[in-house]
Amino acid sequence: MGAEKLPSPLPKKDGQAPLILGLQPSALVDHVARVDWSLLDQIPGERGGSQSVAFEELEHILSEVKTHILPSPDDPSPLRTIAGGSVANTIRGLTAEFGVTCGIIGACGEDEQGRLFVHNMTFNGVNLSKLRTKKGPTAQCVCLVDAVGNRTMRPCLSNAAKLQADELTRDDFKGSKWLILRYGIYNLEIIHAAIRIAKEEGVSVSLDLASFEMVRNFRSPLLELLESGDIDLCFANEDEATELLRGEQNTDPEAAIEFLAEHCRWAVVTLGHNGCIVKHGKEIVRVPAIGEAQPTDATGAGDLFASGFLYGLIKGLSLEDSCRVGSCSGGSVIRSLGGEVTPENRQWMYKQMQIKGLPVPNLCKSST
């Protein structure tokens, strides 16, 4: 099918497989900008969510962004273009912030966006030996951030280079401990294939519910996925949790956490500035958010929460401390544009972890 594996940009230590794998069938590049509300009013779809657009619409939005950018004295780059996608954000956070060995399974195009994705992820220490190059464009997404930090996403995935289900092999998963997935109806075939192989290899599975539109429009196959019992850890934000229980008498976060915990070993519902609620077995914890209440950009907040929470799990921290690390990590990324933590905000995160008595990663060593 014209696919070929990129050479590994990272030396494999003793042939060791990445501890955590992220499946992102299509590599993705984010264009992140702070814009005034008038632009958001002109774009089809609900504000605050994620809705796919055609390439022509993506180009139109990008051209309009230039005339609607909000100036920011704290950020000399009003438009940032970086490797993106929920899974990539989480994986990058685990490597760059926590020193956990991670890799990406997926495909990118042989274009400028594909090269940018590879460079950004490699620079942050992600193993790309399982990333294939294919003909076709690399997927892109416009992330529009309003004056109060809320983000609206418009991804363009049409005709993008994409890994197919029949291209997955057991060798892709062998030796790893966790597989990170993002729910998506167009990726359902490869998601099921990846879960099947992961379970055969003894790999635990983490699923993010993606967006409230995805849950609302494709709730039935999502319920089947959850009820299969193959999802070990599930992350949902408050809007996604509400959509998951739509039609039920009670749709609050407590009801959602109980529902998810019936099917998953760990259930997590993030609540924005109200923190999170998590259940594992019979244990339920609530942890407040960490950092200023007013974010610069909420892009990646849930993804980086997942990075910190997974770090806590693999380090054997208590459920509450794993949530605290997640809150520190999620709180660090909302302090600047995009789903990547800046060096300054990384140091802010480590300081918050020290204040709360949490183990700060020693990035001089491989942390697994």
Layout of strands and helices, then pairs:
Elements lengths: L3 E2 L14 E7 L1 E7 L2 H6 L12 H14 L10 E6 L1 H13 L3 E8 L2 H12 L7 E4 L4 E7 L5 E6 L13 H4 L4 E5 L5 H13 L3 E5 L3 H6 L1 H9 L5 E5 H7 L8 H11 L2 E5 L5 E5 L2 E5 L13 H14 L4 H15 L9 H13 L13
Parallel strand pairs: 2-5, 2-9, 3-7, 5-6, 9-10, 10-11, 11-12
Antiparallel strand pairs: 1-6, 3-4, 7-8, 12-13, 13-14
Helix pairs in contact: 3-11, 11-12, 12-13
Task: Give the gist of this structure.
The chain is of the alpha/beta class.
3D structure, described in words:
It is globular, with a radius of gyration of 19 Å. Helix 11 packs antiparallel against helix 12 (319-333). The longest helix is centred in the last third of the chain and has 15 residues, at 319-333. It has helices spanning 37-42, 55-68, 86-98, 112-123, 170-173, 188-200, 212-217, 219-227, 238-244, 253-263, 301-314, 319-333, 343-355; strands spanning 4-5, 20-26, 28-34, 79-84, 102-109, 131-134, 139-145, 151-156, 178-182, 204-208, 233-237, 266-270, 276-280, 283-287. It is built from 13 helices and 14 strands. The chain has 368 residues and is an alpha/beta fold. It starts with a strand and ends in a 13-residue tail after the last helix. The chain is 37% helix and 21% strand. It has one domain (4-9, 16-355): UDP-N-acetylmuramoyl-L-alanine:D-glutamate ligase.
The total of beta strands comes to: 14
Kindly estimate the percentage of residues that lie in beta strands according to DSSP: 15-25%
Strand order of the largest sheet: 1-6-5-2-9-10-11-12-13-14
Which structural class best describes the helix and strand composition?
alpha/beta
Q: Examine the coordinates and then state which fold CATH places here, giving the name of the CATH topology.
A: UDP-N-acetylmuramoyl-L-alanine:D-glutamate ligase
